[in-house]
Amino acid sequence: MDTTGLRERAEAWRKADPDPETQAELAQVLAKSDWADLSDRFAQDLEFGTAGLRGVLGAGPNRMNRAVVRRTTAGLARYLKATVPDVTSRGVVVGRDARRLSRELAEDTAAVLVAEGIPAHVFPEPVPTPVTAFAVLHLNAAAAVMVTASHNPPEYNGYKVYWGNGAQIVPPQDVGIADAIAKVEPANQVPLLTPAQGRAKGLWRDLPEDVGNAYLRAILDLRLYKKGSDTLSIVYTAMHGVGGAWAVLALKEAGFPRVTPVAEQQQPDGRFPTVRFPNPEEPGAMDLSLATAERVRADVVLANDPDADRLAVMARDASGGLRLLTGNEVGVLLGHYVLTQGAKDGRAHVVTTIVSSTQLGEIARGLGAAYDEVLTGFKWIANRALERSRTEGTQFVFGYEEALGYTVGTATRDKDGVGAALVFADLAAWCESRGTTVLGYLEEIQRAFGLHVGAQRNVTLPGAAGAQTIRAIMQAFRASPPERIGGTRVSAVRDYQQGEGGLPPSNVVAFALEGGGRVTLRPSGTEPKIKYYFEHKETPAPGEPLPQARQRAEAKLSALIDAFLVLARERGQPA
């Protein structure tokens, strides 16, 4: 290791760092000559991609900090001025969640934008990510920045960029912005204006409550049943995030008076004191919600993640117990509900991702709706919806990805946990009016379109050696795809690296199985993991109790997973 060169790079970064806290942090690491820590902090620049930036807070170019955000914003501003002629009149929206350093990072973002002559439409208080996405369209802004790390642990923060169409950026925008960032001067030389200077020039524009009120009106219009329920009992958790006040207000405005927030998690708190990993999918994250729901005998539990762009749902089963629905089950329920109960102006269009359940496609085909599968990430869902609407005149009504992301209609062009919670409550009230339950409705869908069960397995392989192992596994499955997985024949191999189905190339391989199942594998884009997605389709016999069919389906899914993991180990995955 060239420790002399590493020390010189670290000292140069420290001197250019505008934040005294991270300056001091780096000085301590240098004083200890902690070469492993320094090497990690300076291994690379935190990569700017279609998801923007996300990383651990700390000093150095491979961390999230004020220096990185100032340089990133300068690059974004200069790219916008080069590619969007009217950006200096339309401006850029700036929103933030309630995480550690979010306020400072958002203020730095606005300060750099206004110094570049670009109006910054700034939310003065923390807001859900979908509110920022909504504001882009509502204000006809050229772009938006949302400072958030979504559902990551408390030591993380991030920087998400939206384009003027309301969707997250896609290529070539990400590459163009990254190239512009690479040319930016050291952070302490990036021009910026204080809030007072920006306001005096009319460029720093604090957004009024009217924008948030317009968002609430827009999501209230997404409801289909629109009658609410005086008897449906709902428990809601904000997971220490920013969705609490918004979701509770929206539900009450929609006619749901029996909403009980999980008190310990209702207020924003970037420390996330009751959960280590504030993701509703993580083990233990829903324990307080479950306890609250049992105490008040709730019918449904609705959970947002900290920036309120995701939704998790629990509902009571036939035995009276609460069951956490999978992301695919929520997606199928909302998709079927919107397709069958919503008014259409043209051919309805629904979109999901290549790692989500195939069942939405079966429903869409059965109901005559347009359907697409796109790459993982909501940016692809939103942009495909815009493309088909423009070229074919379809009406986008619903999109989802299995990782708890949903959007109904076009109020936002990104996943919206608050809007989805409101529509799901509307669905539950509609079920109640029909004398059934959420899970009773799901059974109706599964009897009509098959019982799809799914699971995901993640294998963490950290470091350079882990990255090499992940590459080797992917290559081995490409070079020697299995003819059978367990007792099931592989009917088709789809290598998305080759641009399968007209999609942009992506490092994903999928094996379609005889009978309607699927196995998909891909490296994570944000973590040192390889991810495996499994789906099995079972057809219940006429009159067969669905729990019996589900038990059989789960057993077959388990066998499929075991058989595939044997194949993965044969191709280099550690035991």
Automatic annotation (TrEMBL):
Alphabetized UniProt keyword annotations: Isomerase, Magnesium, Metal-binding, Phosphoprotein
Location of the Alpha-D-phosphohexomutase C-terminal domain: 499-538
Residue ranges with Basic and acidic residues bias: 1-18
Pfam family for this entry, one: PGM_PMM_I
Region annotated Disordered, chain positions: 1-21
Domain of life the protein comes from: Bacteria
InterPro entries: A-D-PHexomutase_a/b/a-I, A-D-PHexomutase_a/b/a-I/II/III, A-D-PHexomutase_a/b/a-II, A-D-PHexomutase_a/b/a-III, A-D-PHexomutase_C, A-D-PHexomutase_C_sf, A-D-PHexomutase_CS, Alpha-D-phosphohexomutase_SF
Cofactor: Mg(2+)
Domain Alpha-D-phosphohexomutase alpha/beta/alpha: 47-185, 225-317, 327-429
Assigned protein family: Belongs to the phosphohexose mutase family.
Record protein name field: Phospho-sugar mutase
Organism placement in taxonomy: Bacteria, Pseudomonadati, Myxococcota, Myxococcia, Myxococcales
